[in-house]
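Example S7 (structure tokens).
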């Protein structure tokens, strides 16, 4: 009788343990944004992810266009290599460091003239001499 009771208690435990190990849950976002990789010269341009976990399509397109513009200009790309460029509802937010004030204002001016950009918030810093 005791053996039957022990077995009836242990069988559900073993079945549940086996079930836990056979089911794996993986996270799959609804929209994937390719993150650039390749070393320290990567410029990070990304759209803001909203409360629902998805970036607005206009912001996604604007971020891609800015990234392409920087890729076509080696000097600006090199200047922005330590900068983060965020796009949020057409507003471009600059963070990080650039080599000089000239690059800081040049990047701000070029992005302010970019189609689709409504405002540029420049939080870039320059190294202290």
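Recovered sequence:
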């Amino acid at each position: 009788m005791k053996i039957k009771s022990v077995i009836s208690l242990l069988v559900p435990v073993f079945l549940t343990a086996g079930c836990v190990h056979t089911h794996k849950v993986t996270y799959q976002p609804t929209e994937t944004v390719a993150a650039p990789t390749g070393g320290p010269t990567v410029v990070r341009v990304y759209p803001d992810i909203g409360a629902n976990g998805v970036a607005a399509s206009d912001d996604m397109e604007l971020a891609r266009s800015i990234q392409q513009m920087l890729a076509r200009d080696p000097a600006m790309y090199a200047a922005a290599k330590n900068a983060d460029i965020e796009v949020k509802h057409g507003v471009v937010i600059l963070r990080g460091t650039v080599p000089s004030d000239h690059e800081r204002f040049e990047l701000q001016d070029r992005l302010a003239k970019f189609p689709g950009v409504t405002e540029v918030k420049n939080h870039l810093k320059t190294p202290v001499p």
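Notes on this example. Residues 2-22 form the longest helix (21 residues).
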